[in-house]
Structures are given as C-alpha cells and as structure tokens.
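User: Hi! I'm a student and our assignment asks us to look at how structure tokens line up with a sequence. Could you show me two examples?

Assistant: Happy to help. In each example below, the sequence comes first and the structure tokens follow. Example one:
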Amino acid sequence: MSINEAHKIKLMYGLAGGALGWGVSPHFRCASLLVAPKFLGKEGRLYLLTYVLAAIYDGPIANIRHNLDEVIRSVGCTVELQINHSRQIWKVSTAPLRAMLRDMVRGGRTLNAETRNVSQAFAGLNEQVASEAGYGGKRPRRAQGRQAPSTQQEYEQKTKLRCQREYFSAQLVVKV
C-alpha cells in the first residue's frame, strides 16, 4: 500500500499518541477497551457504515462527479465549436452567391438603361413594320387557322411587297 508522506506522519503521531495514552492514563486504556465492543453493536456498525460511505463518496464518487463535469464541459465546447464552424462554412459557401446577387442588383440599373437604349434603337424598325405605307394596298394576311406571323416574317413579307411595287413602277417607267 502506497501512502503519501503526510498520511505517514499523521499515522505515526496517532500511534505515538495512542501508545503514550495507554502507557500513562488508565482512563484512556479503559475508554479504548470499551470502544471495541461498541463498534460491534448497532451504533458501531452505523459509524463504520458512515465512515465507509464518506470514504467512497470522497474517492470514486467524487472522481466520477469530476469526470462528468469534464464531459459536460467538453461536450459543450465541442457543440459550440461545431456551431461556429458551421456558421463559417455557411458564410464561405454562400459568399459567391451573395457576391453574384449583389452584382446583379448593381447591374440592374445598367441593364434597364441598356434595355431602353435597345428599345429606342429598334423603335424605327418597329414603326416601319407596323406601317402600311409603300405597298399598294396589299396588306399581308394570315391564313385562317394559322398563327400570326412573327415580326421577322411580317417584315420580310412587307419588304417583298414593297420591292414588287418598286419593280412594277420601274417597269412602267421603262415601257413608257
């Protein structure tokens, strides 16, 4: 049994005090002899049980309690680290998307301005497609049951009709 130095000193003082008490005092001898049967009775067993429970509580149970406190602290720290790590991962993984959305919001004004410029650039062409001038009353018609022609198809047809009108006008001038 390994006993540390402080306990060895206390044990030595206790044995020396007991030997001195036995050697000097008859009352000490009588009291110590009467204590032995008392430990064998109900009160003695209760005292020994209390002493054993105190030793168990002070030893292994205190160690288990200390270990549980450390486990709780460790789990709490681990959970906090995971939360912080997850927050950092979320920020890093969504940074490109947030930057792209920020750029889209900034570029929205530029896109609107460019759209207006394109609309203004094609305004003349739209007017030309919508106008009926230049082809001798022959309006492009769609056949029943068919879809309306696209703007491109309508423009091509009007251009062909205008060209035919010019062609016929040029032939009339030449024949005269």
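Example two works the same way, sequence first and then tokens:
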Amino acid sequence: MTDFSALLLPDRGQAAHVIQLVRAAQLEEWLGTQPERVRAATGAAGFKAKPGEFAILPGLKAEEWSAVLGVGEAPDPFDLAAAAARLPEGSYRLSEPLPAGAALGWLLAQHRFDRYRSEAEPAAPRALLTQDAAHIDEALALAGAVARVRDLVNMPANDLGPAELQAAVESVANACGASTRVTRGDALESDFPLIAAVGRAAGAARGPRLIELEWGDAAHPRVALIGKGVCFDSGGLDIKPASGMRLMKKDMGGAAHALALAELVMRTRLPVRLHLLIPAVENAIAGDAMRPGDIFRSRKGLSVEIANTDAEGRLILADALARAAEAAPALMLDFATLTGAARVALGPDLPALFANDDGLAEALLAAGTAAADPLWRLPLWPGYRDMLKSDVADLNNAPEGGFAGSITAALFLERFVPAGTPWAHLDTFAWMPTARPGRPKGGEALGLRAAWALLRARFAPAAAG
C-alpha cells in the first residue's frame, strides 16, 4: 500500500513552492494584483481557473517558481488532486489555510496500484505542508482506508480468493490488537448454510468461510459492519455472459469497504465495540454447485428457495446479518456490490442507501453530503415484499420480472435484521469506470467516507466537530 506519511507534513517553515488557490469568479481581480511575468505565464498557459486547472508561475529567480490552481466555489476533497498528480517532485504549501478535507485528494492523487506492472511509474513524491497539524493523522488514516479499498478491489481473483481475504482481515486485526474467528468446513455447513451453499462449488482450496473480527471495550456501544465478500462471481449455474463477468473480481468490494471502515474505527480508537463480519466465497460452477430450485435453511431458520444462482450476494449477507444481530448491536451497517438495478437507477457514483430507521438514513445522507461522498436513499417499500414469496419456502431469493431489483434485494436482507435494530444497507459499485483527478479507473471507495463521518458523529461527537 502507498505510504502517505511523507506526503502530508507539518509546516515548520521548510523550503517549499507556494500554490495559490483561485476561483474563476476571482480570476480577473487576482490577475490585477500580479506582476507582468505572472500574467504572461497564465495567459500562455490558457489558465481560466477552472477547478483542477493549474499553471506554473515564474519567480524572480529560477528556483522561486510557484503555481496557481483553480478551485470550485464549494470545497471539494479533490480540489488539489490534479496538481498533486502533475506538479514536479518537491514540497508545497498553500497561500491560504488548507480547505476542509482537501488533503485527502492531495494524498490519493499519489496512490498507485502498480503491483503487476513490470515497469512501474517512477515515484515523484509531492509533499504538502500544512499548519493544520492536528488533522494530519486523520487525513492519513482516511487516505489509507480508501487506498485499502482500491487495492483489494483491484486485485485479480487468482490472487484474492476467500483465503487471501481472510489473510487481509487477520493482518489488520494483528496490527490493531483485534481478535478473529473463522468458520469453515463442516461448521460452516451447519451454522451458516447459505454461505456454505453459495461457495461450495469453488472447491477446498477456495472454500467458503465466515470471517469475524472483534475489537474494543465490551462496555461501549456495539457496532456491526458486514461486507459482501464474493471474490469472484461467475453467476453460478445461471452463468453471466462474458461482458457481465469481466469485472466480477470487484464483487468483494463490500468486504473491502467494511474492512477499511473497521480499520479506521480501530486506528482512531473510536469508543465502540466493533464486530466485523465478512462472508467470503467464490460463486463458481461445479457438479455440487447450488441449483435453481434448491432450498436451503438459513442461520435464522428461514428457508430460501434459489430462483437464481446469480443472486448469491444476498444469501451470504443474510447469514452474516443474522449472526451480527445475535449480539444485539446498537447499529448495523452492511456494504455490498449487490445489484445491477442500483447502477441502472443511480449510475456508478451514487451508492443506493436503504435503512430501516429514518433518523439513521437522514444522518447518513447528511454525512455523505458533508464528506462529498454522496448517497441516495431508496425505499424499503413494503408493497414489494410479496415479490419475495415462494410457493415452497419462506423466501425466494430472486423475484421474477426484474422490477425494483435493488429494493427487493434490500427487502430480502431486511428479513434477517431484528425489528428495532438500526440498520443501513449500502449497495455500492466500488469501481470508477472513468478516471478523474485523484480517482483513477478501477477500484474505488464509494460510501466509505459517508459511513465514517456518521460513525464519528454518532460515537465520538467531540472528535467529529
């Protein structure tokens, strides 16, 4: 993982190039205060102060050059990202106080996933100096969490199966002083039958498991984080077409989000009793694969008829949600790359938010807006519950017709959450299909920062302020 610690440093007067921040509406006024050499440089560069646009400005001496960067009227965490990715190597300071959250874009613009490149791009670190030293650790932790999501999602399935996902959780647990428990084999078959059913076709080497992590003082409020860990999704016997399978290494994106959020909780010592649950499987095809029409009894006791083997994520989450609920948490959050229907409705940028508590939903939406990590709420519409009925079992995992696919998936999950337990479900894409400053094409954390802002505000309000 990228080491961000040398990229954001306390400003103690070190030598550094200055970056001036200018908004388009202020450009003419700003140019009027600049010497001729600066006006000539910005004119030659065609600088219009559009967000992310920047130009190098000459000084009186060759080494005294500076830069000007266009930013939007409203602060954005990625305001500094374009400059951080393209400025020459060296140290920089802003001409004004660091905008709220802007350090994140500076750091993430320098994150690289180059594990598989024989000729990796040479590192050219750009360090940002800030007088807001109190928030350096927070920015570094958040950038590390986003980078963890990206790195895990970008890993190919041949190098990231259930065992490797387990190893990633155990590595974080060991670093943070947490305990782990892994259920697999016969114990999984008896205790978590839906997880076992989805993952059994992958064979022993990539066998299914439930990975659990616990951390914190038992006297603190209990928070359960659950992440869908389908390390590759072929669709099972209801096999996906090639175009639908191409990105299915990212179907463990929910697990990556939950693990990264858990690490943030532990590294910042949020006063909660943390319970992380990751059902890790590969949805493969073999002679013992689950079949359409099969019926399995879930951990909660509800029987589920398999109408579509490609609706596997909700099955493994159901057993994990049931396990989390047994400890009576004060809050349950799950993350999953669950439905294409959510992407049809909201596109790649907006995770669909479902919640059984209006106050929790409103708090998450507000947190997402404040963190520039927006969510969009969709309803747990009770009128669609009948779509989940089965002629032969308690539930059907995939209603016919395709209507309201993301809603019916969330309603399926809701059946495994006890009434009165605050719960939110984020149906996230976990992928950036087109590169933007600070956000390369590939794995991406979408909804992570919103959830983190919610947890800080709810369980450590003084720190959040």
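Here is something you could point out in your write-up. The chain has two domains: 8-110, 141-464.
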